[in-house]
User: Fold Type II secretion system protein GspG C-terminal domain-containing protein from marine metagenome.
Amino acid sequence: YALISPGELGVVDIFSNGPDGEPGTDDDIGNWNINEYLN
Assistant:
């Protein structure tokens, strides 16, 4: 996990690079798109 403060997409951005471990790919999970993974 990584944390950026101040964030680029919110006050604080918290994210994981996902299963592939590569940043910027479709499997990244962040506090701005978490609802996509909860449904």
